[in-house]
TrEMBL record:
This is Pentatricopeptide repeat-containing protein. The chain crosses the membrane at residues 12-33. The keyword Transmembrane helix applies. Keywords: Membrane, Transmembrane, Transmembrane helix.
C-alpha cells in the first residue's frame, strides 16, 4: 500500500509542481482562543507560496464597501488571513491532497465571503456548506470577536459531509489537515507556542520575539512520522514550520509570517513580516474594533 502510494506520488509530482494552483497556499497557524488573560484571540501564522507569485503586503483594502485588513494574493484576489473593523476574523489553510481539481473555485475567496457577510460564524458555515464541494480541500476558521464565536469549516475528507465545528476555548494548531491533527510540525509549533505563552504569563506577548522563535523554525520532521500522502522527499521539504524549497518553478516557501493579537478591550494589532523582492519587511497596523 505504502509503495503504491509513493509511486503514484512520483508520477504526480511533476503536475504538482507545474500547477501553482494545485499546491497553493500551504499555511500553518497556532492560536489561543478565549483562554488567555489578555487576548480573546492571539494567532500566529505562516503563509507558504511560490516566492514569485504576486502578493500585496498587509494593508487595508476595500472589498465591495467593506474595509478589510490583511495580505492579498494578486493572482486569485483572495487572502489567507484578514479581519474587519467590526471584529470579524477569517483564516484559511489548504488541505494537502493528491488530486486537486484545476477548475475548482478560488479558496482565497472564502475568508472574504465571511468578512463581507453579516451572518454569524455558524450561520455562515451552514450557508457555505452547500457550496463547499466546488472548492479544493480547505480548512477555514471564521470568528466574530464581539460575540465570542469561532467556527471551523472543512470540506475534507471528500465524500463525507462538510465538517462544521464550534472552536472550543483553548490552544489550537491548524496546518494542512483537520484542525489539531497531530502532524509533526503542528505538534512542534503547538508545544512551542504553549511554552512561550507560559513564559509571558499574564504580561503582554512580545510578538516579534515569538514570531522569530516559533515561525522561523526550519527544523524538519523525522521522515518516519510524515503523513505519506505525497512523495516523501517533498513532504520532508514541507515538514518544518518555516518552509524553503527549490522547485522547477522557482523557490517555494514561507513568504509571510503574521501575528494577530486582539485584546479584551477590542484593540487589534496585526503584525506582518513579509518577503518582498527578496527582502523581509515588517509592518504593524493597529486599530480598535468598532
Ligand atoms: C501596535 O500595538 C502594539 C501592541 O499593543 C504595540 O506594541 C505597538 O507599538 C503598536 N504599534 C503602532 C505602530 O502603533
Amino acid at each position: 500500500m505504502h509503495a503504491r502510494t509513493r509511486r503514484n506520488c512520483i508520477i504526480f509530482l511533476p503536475n504538482l509542481l507545474v500547477s501553482s494552483h494545485s499546491l497553493g497556499t500551504m499555511c500553518i497557524g497556532a492560536f489561543i482562543w478565549q483562554a488567555h488573560p489578555l487576548y480573546p484571540l492571539l494567532l500566529i501564522q505562516n503563509r507558504d507560496e511560490y516566492r514569485n507569485r504576486p502578493t500585496k503586503a498587509l494593508a487595508w483594502w476595500d472589498v465591495d464597501g467593506v474595509e478589510i485588513l490583511g495580505g492579498r494574493d494578486e493572482v486569485g484576489g483572495g487572502t489567507w488571513l484578514a479581519c474587519t473593523r467590526q471584529g470579524r476574523v477569517a483564516f484559511l489553510t489548504n488541505v494537502l491532497e493528491l488530486h486537486p481539481h484545476p477548475d475548482a473555485k478560488t479558496r482565497g475567496d472564502l475568508p472574504l465571503l465571511f468578512l463581507e457577510s453579516t451572518k454569524s460564524p455558524m450561520e455562515f458555515a451552514h450557508e457555505l456548506a452547500a457550496d463547499a464541494h466546488r472548492y479544493n480541500g480547505f480548512n477555514l476558521i471564521v470568528a466574530d470577536i464581539p460575540s465570542k464565536s469561532m467556527v471551523y469549516i472543512s470540506n475534507r475528507p471528500m465524500g463525507e459531509p462538510v465538517s462544521i465545528q464550534q472552536v472550543s476555548p483553548g490552544l489550537h494548531v491548524l496546518s494542512n489537515a483537520k484542525l489539531d491533527s497531530p502532524w509533526p510540525k503542528a505538534q512542534r509549533l503547538g508545544k512551542g507556542f504553549k511554552q512561550m505563552l507560559n513564559q509571558y504569563g499574564k504580561t503582554q506577548v512580545m510578538v516579534k520575539e515569538m514570531v522569530e522563535k516559533l515561525m522561523k523554525d526550519k527544523v524538519k520532521a523525522d521522515k518516519s512520522k510524515l503523513p505519506g500522502i505525497c512523495d516523501l522527499d517533498w513532504e520532508f521539504s514541507l515538514s518544518s514550520v518555516f518552509v524553503e524549497v527549490d522547485t522547477p518553478l522557482g523557490m517555494y516557501g514561507t513568504r509571510s509570517t503574521a501575528a494577530l493579537a486582539i485584546r479584551a478591550g477590542g484593540q487589534v494589532s496585526f503584525y506582518e513580516n513579509c518577503l518582498e523582492e527578496g527582502v523581509w519587511f515588517e509592518r504593524t497596523i493597529n486599530y480598535t474594533i468598532n
